[in-house]
Amino acid sequence: MKRTGAQIFIEALLREGVKYIFGYPGGAVLPIYNELFDAPINHILVRHEQAAVHAADGYARASGKPGVVLVTSGPGATNTVTGIATAYMDSIPVVVFTGQVPTPLIGNDAFQEADIVGITRPCTKHNYLVKDVKDLARIIKEAFYIATSGRPGPVLVDLPKDVLTNSTEPRYPSEVKLRGYNPTYKGHPKQIEKALNLILRSRRPLIYAGGGVVLSGGSEELRAFAEKLNIPVTMTLMGLGGFPGTHPLSLGMLGMHGTYRANMAVTHCDCLIAIGSRFDDRVTGKIEEFAPHAKIVHVDIDPTSISKNVQVDIPIVGDVKLVLRDFLRLMEGRDLSHYHKELEEWHQQIEEWKRAHRMAYQQKMRGKIKPQYVVEKIYELTRGDAIITTEVGQNQMWAAQYYLFDKPRRFLTSGGLGTMGYGFPAAIGAQFAHPEMTVIDIAGDGSIQMNIQELATAVQYRLPVKVAILNNGFLGMVRQWQELFYDKRYSASCIQVAPDFVKLAQAYGAVGLRAMKPREVVPVIEKALSIKDRPVIMDFHVDREESVYPMVPAGAPLSKMLLV
Amino acid sequence: MRHTISVLVDNEFGVLSRVAGLFSGRGFNIESLCVAETQDPTVSRMTIVTSGDDQIIEQITKQLNKLINVIKVIDLTETEHIEREMVLLKVGTTSETRAEVLRIADIFRGRIVDVSPTSYTIEVTGDEEKIEAIMTLLKPFGIKELVRTGKVAIARSPKK
Ligand SMILES: Cc1ncc(C[n+]2csc(CCOP(=O)(O)OP(=O)(O)O)c2C)c(N)n1
Questions:
Q1: ipTM > 0.95?
Q2: Which of A78, A219, A239, A563 has the fewest Cβ atoms surrounding its Cβ within 10 A?
Q3: Model-level pTM?
Q4: Closest ligand 1 atom, residue A472 Cα
C-alpha cells in the first residue's frame, strides 16, 4: 500500500523503537505532526528547539538509547545547532529531523529556508537531505545506525515538505549497508598482547579513562581490568562514573580542575593507559609536559583520536568494552602477585600525594553557604544515587569534584563544547529515561537563565526534576579567571539583575525554595527530594567569590597546580 | 612534505563540500584537488595534493576515512605512481617570436589549440617537472593567462 512520507516517517521511527520525540512544530513539518496526533509515540513539546536537542541528548546519555528531535525548517532548524554541536563534541547519539521547504523551492531563499545540511556539516557525524520519498525509509534506518554505531554522534535528516506529502510503496530495509562506513570494534590481538607486556614491565602505571568507557558500556570490564592489575584510575570529566568514584583505586578527575594526586600521578607515571579518552587540552595542560615519563597505550574506537594531540606508543583501535574483555581473557588464570608487589611503592607514593592535598573547603555554620557544601549535601542526601546534570562553569566543576559517581550514565555534562544551558533540558530528557530516579541539575545563576523557559515543559509533563542553583551573583567561572589572570577586573561577569528564582518557579507552576544560611541547606534539599509531581528550583545563595581549586592555568603543565 | 592522496567517494551531491569543509575546518591545506566520476558511475575519485608533516598527513587520511561518504583513501606518495597535470597557456606572440614559441611547445609535446594575431594557446600535459619547465621557458614571451587542472594520479600496476 502506498504511504505518504509523513506516515513512513512514523513507521520507520516505530521500527527503531523510538518512544519519545523532543520537538517543536512549524509549517514545514505539519504533515508529520498531523500523523503524530494519534501515533503511539510520545511527543514532548519543549519551549525552545535548542532545549529539544539537549533533552534528547540527556535522554541518550542516561538511557544509552538514541535521542530523537523533530523541528521545523529555518529558525527551528538553526535553533538546534548548539544542541547538535554539544552532542557532537561528546559523541552522543541523537537523530535530529528538520523540516525543509519543498524541493522545488530549495535554493530560492524561500520563507523559512535555511541550508541546515550545510550549516551542520561540521558538527554532525553525518547528515542527509532527503530528496525523494523513496529514499526516506532507508535514510532513517541509516541515520539511526550511524548515530549509534562506532563512535556515536548526532545525525541530522532534513525533510522537505513535499517529501513528507508525496507517497510511495515503502520498503523498510532490515539492515544497513554503507561501503564507506565500517567501524572497527575488535582490537588487534597483537597490539593487545604488546600492550599487556608493556604494562607488566611498568612500575608506575596509570589508567586514564574517558567518556568512551561510558559510551561502550565497558565500566564493568574497566573495573575488572584495573582490579586484576591493581592499577590506579583517573577519569576525565566525561569518564566520571565509568569507574566507581568511591573505589580505592580511584584518583578522581584529572586535568584543569583535577585532584592533586591524579595530576601528580599523570606527571610521574611510567605507563599511561588511555581508555576511551582523547587527550583534550583541558585534560593535558601543556601538552609537551603531559605524562613526560610514560609510554602510552591508547584504546579508542576512533582512529582519528589516536596520535592526534599526543604520539602514542601502542595504539589499539577498537571498542573499549571488547578490547578490555580481550585483555581480561589474556590475563585469565595468570598470577600477577609478583607484579602487584612491584607496584607497592607507586601506591605508597599516591597515598602520600593524597595525604598532602585533599579536595577541601571550610563550611562555617555561621558563615556564608559554600557551594561545595551544597553539592556534598546533595551527594549525601541522595546517597550518591541520583542522576546529576550540570550547567557550565564553577557549578560543573564542583559537581564533578564533590559528587562521587559509582555508576555510569549518572553524570550528564557538556564536556567538549561547554554549553551553558545544557543541564536543565538534559535533566528533563534524563527524567523521561528514568522516571523513578532523582534527577538534579546543578546550576549557576547565569547558565540556568539560558534555558529557563523549560520550566514550562517540566511542569507540563509533571517531571520532578530538581535544579540546584549555586547562586553567586556572578558568571562565576569568568569571574574566577578575571580574579586570577586579569587583576580582578570583573568586566561583564557580575550579574547585576537576576530574577527572584523562587517567584519565577512559582510563576511557572513549579516549586521554589531558597537557602540563605548554611543551616537551611539540608532542609531545602530534603524538601525538594520529597516533591514528586513537579519541578523544584532550589536557590542557594552561596559565597560570592568562592573559586574552584585545584586549578591548572590554561597552557600550564599539570604539575603546576594552584592549590588553595 | 607534499603528498598526493587519492580518495574514492560516493558520487553524490554534497560530498565535495564535506571533503573541502574537512580541510578548511581543521586547517589542513589543499594545493590542488581534482574530482570526477570513475568507471563506476556511483563512485568519484578525488586526487588531493596536500602538505604537512607525518602527523598531519596521518590525521588527514584518518579524518578522510572517517567521512561516511569516503570509500577508500590511498596515499599514493607511499607507492609507485604516475602523476599528470594539464595546463593551458596563452602566450603572447609577435611575428618574430612565433617560431620560437612553437619550437618550445614542440619540445614539450605541447599542442597549439588556439591562435590569434597576438597569441598562441598551448596545451601541455605532464608531470610537475615538465609543467614547471615549459612555464619557465615561455615566461619571457609573456604568459597572458594560464589554467592548470591540478594533478591526477594513479598507482602503477605491479610489473609481475
Ligand atoms: C553558551 C555559553 N556562553 C558563554 C560561555 C562562557 N562561560 C563559561 S563559564 C561561564 C560562567 C557561568 O556562570 P554561571 O552559570 O553563573 O556559573 P558559575 O560559574 O557561577 O557556577 C561563562 C559565561 C559558555 N560556556 N557557554
A1: no
A2: A563
A3: 0.96
A4: 20
